[in-house]
Amino acid sequence: MEGGAEIVLLKGRKVWKPVKLLDMIKTKKLLWPVLLLLPALVIYGVFFIFPFFFTFYLSFMQWNLISPDIEPVGLQNYQNLFADKVFWISLTNTAFYVAVTVPLSMLLGLGLAVLVEGAGRYREVYRFLLFIPVVASLAVTSYVWMLLMNPTNGLINALLAYLEIAGPNWLNDPQWALLSLMIIGVWKALGYNIVLYIAGLKGIDKRLYEAAEMDGAGKWKQFTAITMPMLSPVHFFVLLVSIINSFQLFTTIHIMTHGAPNNATNVLVYEVWQEAFQFFDIGKASALSMVMFIVVLLITILQIRFSESKVHYQ
Questions:
Q1: How many CB atoms lie within 10 A of CB 292?
Q2: Which are the contacts of 19, defined by CB distance < 8 A and separation ≥ 6?
Q3: Rg over CA atoms, the chain
Q4: Is 271 in contact with 288 (CB distance < 8 Å)?
Q5: 171 and 204 housed in the same domain
Q6: Looking at residue 253, which CATH number applies to its domain?
Q7: Mean pLDDT, range 280-302, rounded to an integer
Q8: Largest Cα–Cα distance in the chain?
Q9: Is 73 part of any domain?
């Protein structure tokens, strides 16, 4: 039996016969698979299913995280959330961050993947160097970036001064603070995207390029007519993962800016943390978490619907 079906002999030939779940329960064939999955199901339930429904429950409650009293308030938390100016600023900053970092990290990842694959004997070295940001601790690298972006003695402004360019106050200027975090976000995501695109490039049949070259197609034509369409599943996966990861921006803000200056770098996840652990308004933090979940879910559904006609797996 495999995948809800069993192999039976019909006129001397092996054929697949669907097995009903009720039949599996009656014959106890489901017991062993359930026992094997049970540890993973328990972990998933404790750390994912229960927190989700508990957060949904708390979004209709008033609780300060310390008091044992939890009072129902209905939709008050959502009303307070949508009336909060900081929420709309955080939502705008998050949308802007996602809209810039996701396509930029995808374009750079694809371009560098193509260059690395054509680098000959040094391709392994380039892969190693470009993948370092992925495995490096974001907390540690955030402090390194703070030193690099120091307005008075940071390396970046020193290089700009050498080129006779006045360097900005990266993390303290409202016009540059979020952009600084975008630079770090793209740098962090680049190596992961490169690895995915390299895997996609290796899966493309080389005979397609040979046939296109025989027909007189140049490198750019081969890239647009063969590489890009054949990488559509990778594009979809990278886009989906990049958007979800971008919505989870927290560490760099918590270490580098704390949402400053004047909420210029405040995003949804950081506001959830503030509402829960600085202002002890668990109900409002839970309501914001549910709003984030709905936003990401809608974006994911739209991506899947759009990909039905754009993504080709063969």
A1: 18
A2: 1, 4, 5, 6, 29
A3: 25
A4: yes
A5: yes
A6: 1.10.3720.10
A7: 95
A8: 85
A9: no
